[in-house]
Amino acid sequence: MNNLINKYRFTVKPVSLENSNALELARSIQVHPLTYQELPYDPEYSNYAGRLTLEKLSNVSPEEMYWKARREIIFRHTGEHPFEISGPDSLKFLQKIFPRDISKIAVGRCSYQFACYHDGGMITDGILLRIDKDKYWFAQADGDLFSWYKAHSKNLNVEINDPNVWVSQVQGPLSMKLLENLSNGFSENDWKYFDWKELQILDQKVIVSRSGFTNELGWEIYFRPENQTEKIGDYILEQGKKLGMALESL
């Protein structure tokens, strides 16, 4: 590889359509519906499971970002890509995809899972939520898992769909305090790690799981098509700022 390449970091940058010429063959990658909250901070992104995921913002340094997550609270919009697996054979199908025993996951619970090739190499990982008896969501990290799903679904009564769900994370020691402020009647004592609940924020019912990437207290919110995502997202940011919350990347 040419040494010049090693002197650069390659990234995806948003480009304003104002006063610019459109490219005939350009195709935009899917972006989180709350991405507009990040645009004032010179964001940089990477391609992640067919979506853009945030890599860098100008509002905080990496060191400040670390301590925000450890001591206070952060808000992050992810590129996680949930797929829905449903049907009478959904459990049988998922037992073929993941090495851990899926039958142990009850409705209302989620579990960290990783998908492997037949020789043990990992395809991707993520969080598996059991939504109903025969319906699951797997919010995956980067990797082409959909093709692997299709290859293993032959002769099984199972459907694999993209439910158009987007995931944001609130992490840090103050995250549960914020959730109590957002959802009337909710208490941190109401759930355990890797539980998920349907909570009401404003006038919207949203799915929230007690999970996250920081090894701190935290939760993830799953925005469904029927949710007014901007309304909820702006409310979370507004209320979170009262606790010192900052938008962050990785």
SSE blueprint and pairings:
Elements: E1 44-48, E2 51-56, H1 62-71, E3 74-77, E4 81-86, H2 90-97, E5 110-116, E6 122-132, E7 135-140, H3 145-152, E8 159-161, E9 166-171, H4 175-182, E10 196-201, E11 204-209, E12 218-223, H5 229-241, E13 246-247
Overview of the structural elements:
Helices cover 19% and strands 30% of the residues. With 250 residues, it is an alpha+beta fold. The protein has a single domain, classed as 2-Layer Sandwich (Gyrase A, domain 2). The chain is globular and about 50 Å long. The two termini are 28 Å apart.
- Let me know the largest β-sheet: 6 strands, mixed
Specify Rg, calculated over alpha carbons: 19 Å
Average predicted confidence as pLDDT: 92
Number of helices: 5
Helix content: 10-25%
For the record, what is the CATH homologous superfamily label?
A: Probable tRNA modification gtpase trme, domain 1
- What would CATH call the class? Alpha Beta
Provide the structure class. alpha+beta
CATH architecture level-2 label = 2-Layer Sandwich
Q: How many β strands by DSSP?
A: 13
Overall tally of structural domains: 1
Oligomer: single chain
CATH level 3 topology: Gyrase A, domain 2
Low-confidence runs:
none
Major sheet: arrangement of strands: 10-11-12-9-3-13
Shape: globular
Distance between the terminal alpha carbons, to the nearest Å?
28 Å
